[in-house]
Each structure stands twice: as structure tokens, then as C-alpha cells.
Amino acid sequence: MRHDYFISDHHFGHKHIIDFESRPFQDAEEMTRYMVESWNSVVGEEDKVFHLGDFSFLNRDKTKEIVNALNGYKVLILGNHDRGRSRSWWLDVGFDEVSEHPIVYKNFFFLSHEPMYMNKHMPYVNVHGHIHGQKYEGKSYFNVCVEHWDYKPLSFEQIRDSVVVSEEQ
């Protein structure tokens, strides 16, 4: 059975992110190995992954090598660090789809890189990245940055069930 997964902010090749976000790696190469293994430990070839931005700081060849090593059908929503490269650049390195804008998923979830404004009366959930180790309060936001989830993509069911549980509390 095919599953949909969500994750953001790998920052492949960005050695300074290790210090900025207190990531537990000696260097960018160790970080890359761990993040690829973590992704593939939960995502199968038939699964679909929505990457919510800030994927790689590496050149075309190294980025392509990483994308090709990752399981699944990959959709990229461009993050602030991805926008220096064209949509066609990201397709060329192996993403199956690339969006410059947020995506509405299952008519209820807004997928975006940066958190979107959600007032307390909106029934929707914004699944986002960008803010790394921080978290927005409330039932309207769900942060899928790698730092919160041991560098593993989250399934739709994990997100849905977490949102439902928080609404019942």
C-alpha cells in the first residue's frame, strides 16, 4: 500500500546548519549519510514524499546523487534556500514535481515551506517547515522540519492522528 510522507529542511551539504540547529553530526558528509538512511528506513519506492523546502546547498551532480538515492516519488515545494535555482533545475536533479507555491492537500492541509498565517477560526492545518527547532502553538500548525522527527519523513496518518488528538484535548 502506498503512503504519503512529509518532511522539510534537510539542508544537504550545509555544514553550518549542524551548529545552527545543534544537529548531532561531525560533518556534512555524516549528516547526509544519516539523513538518506533515515528517509529510506520509512519510505518505500512506491510512496510519495512531499519535501517542504530547503533541500540542498550542494551542486547539481551531488544534489542529483542524493535525490536518486532517496526512495519514493518526490515532490518539492520550494523553500527560501531553494529559490536561487529554477524549477527546471530541481526537476533535472530528480524531483518528480516542483511547486513554487503552497499546495492544498486533501482539501484541509496547506503544505508550505514557511508557516502561513492561520487565524484561530480557520479549521485548516498548515504543514510547514522553515522554523527548524521552533514550534508554533495551536492546532493550526504542524512543523515537519527534520530536527523534530529524527530526520525521518512523517506519514500522513501520523500527522492526521496528531492533529486529531490535539483537537480532542
UniProtKB/TrEMBL annotation:
Top-level division of the source organism's lineage: Bacteria
Protein name as annotated: Calcineurin-like phosphoesterase family protein
